Amino acid sequence: MDKLKKVLSGQDTEDRSGLSEVVEASSLSWGTRIKGFIACFALGILCSVLYRLPHGAAEAAEAHV
User: Fold this and answer.
1) Domain residue spans of the chain
2) pLDDT at 39
3) What angle do CA 16, 32, 20 make, to 5 degrees?
4) How far apart are CA 61 and CA 27, in angstroms?
5) Which domain of life is it from (predicted)?
6) Cβ–Cβ under 8 Å, residues 49 and 57
7) Nearest-5° angle of CA 47, CA 48, CA 49?
8) Alpha-carbon dihedral 48, 53, 55, 59, rounded to 10 degrees
9) Which helix (H) or strand (E) holds 56?
10) How far apart are the C-alpha atoms of 38 and 32, rounded to whole Å?
11) What is the DSSP string of 13-51?
12) Which tens digits make up the pLDDT trace of 15-60?
C-alpha cells in the first residue's frame, strides 16, 4: 500500500515498470524489430496459404465428382 501511495504522489521515481526494463534491456534497434516483425508476418501468411492449398484442391476435386 505504501508503494502505491509513493507512485501516486510521484515520489517513487526509482522503481521502473517491468515493460520499461525489458525495452531498455533489448539490444535490438527499432529498425531491426520492424524488419523482424515484417518477416514473421510474411512467414505466417505464407504458412497459412500453403496450409490451405491442399485442402482447397481436395474440395475442388470432390465438387467435380
Assistant:
1) 40-65
2) 98
3) 5
4) 51
5) Eukaryota
6) no
7) 90
8) 140
9) helix 30-63
10) 10
11) -S---HHHHHHHH----HHHHHHHHHHHHHHHHHHHHHH
12) 557 777 777 777 888 899 999 999 999 999 999 988 888 766 666 6
**Grid cell for residue 54:** 491442399
**Which residues are within 8 A (CB) of 3 and not within 5 positions of it... i.e. 6 or more apart?**
12, 15
Cell of residue 25, nine digits:
534491456
Mean pLDDT confidence for 1-22 = 66
Q: Dig out the grid coordinates for 62 from the structure.
A: 470432390
Written as nine digits, the cell of 23 is 525495452
What is d(CA 41, CA 29) in angstroms, rounded to the nearest whole number?
18
**The three grid cell numbers given for residue 12, joined into one nine-digit string:** 517513487
Per the structure block, which three cell numbers stand in for 52? 490451405
3-state SS assignment for residue 5:
helix
